[in-house]
């Protein structure tokens, strides 16, 4: 295509930190065919996503007043800023991600005559632990966003089933599973040595190292994995076990206090933020993903590429990646006893753990590549 026939896409997201939705935006922005699309990303702040996009040569617009918290004054400023941007840029497509910016962006898009407004749903916020009033307000906001959007991408079939009966939604929804490129994994020994240095620990060759990557946030359920580790350490003191969490977030200090109060300083470790955290996954023997609510998390796909036995919550789109006791072990959310039992089974039956890991690796390699995700996303853009 020539410069004049390329479609201009502006991708919006609220926060510029580095989480699942931000990785999604980065992957879409950097992998869309350059001969077909001119890509711009608009976001709040200038954190890691902003830096990585700039380094990758993507044009980025920072919305200075855009924050996750609700502020009538700032939100109105953001609306008029986005309205002005859309009038000036004249995009063919806007692609909105995350609840707040999706609502503001979709309204501004309609008022400025954008022909294709695409909303990617990474997960429904009404699935999170909230009071009835909050959930009702959130559902109403989603109803408005689904109405305003021309096409809706859902990262899992589970997301679709929860709103397929809503007006305006059914004929707009397309499932596009998250896909990734295989990370450039460090070898097992190097990864273990580097992680040990980061957390100031010493992992021996017989240390069973389990862990995971994720934002330190209540919805990620790390506290339930910590409780499971406490039970295993207490009841099976002969098992040399450590649990390592790669990531940063709002509850980091709370988790550190919990580790101390449970006497787990020699068994549970937080690394804080690590650039390219997935490259360390070969250090692990088992991957724990105890989240309470999810769309379709990158973490379980990364675990599959790393060929790790996976223990994950039976929530959201995770069962679409992992068939229980075939490609991993699925447990009830918020259930440390179930995590404990799954860990115990894997330690006692390593051949089962290895079989699950092999099956998951085969599946994600076949079905969850970034090439497949981009191809299906472009099809939605062309609708």
Describe what is shown at a glance.
The chain is of the alpha/beta class and 383 residues long. Helix content is 43%, strand content 17%.
Mean of the pLDDT scores?
94
SS-based structural class? alpha/beta
Order of helices and strands: EHEHEHEHEHEHEHEHEHEEHEHEHHH
- The number of helical segments is 14
Low-pLDDT stretches are: none
Into which percentage range does the β-strand content fall? 15-25%
Whole-number radius of gyration?
21 Å
What top-tier CATH class of the largest domain fits best?
Answer: Alpha Beta
Strand order of the largest sheet: 3-2-1-4-5-6-7
CATH architecture of the largest domain: 3-Layer(aba) Sandwich
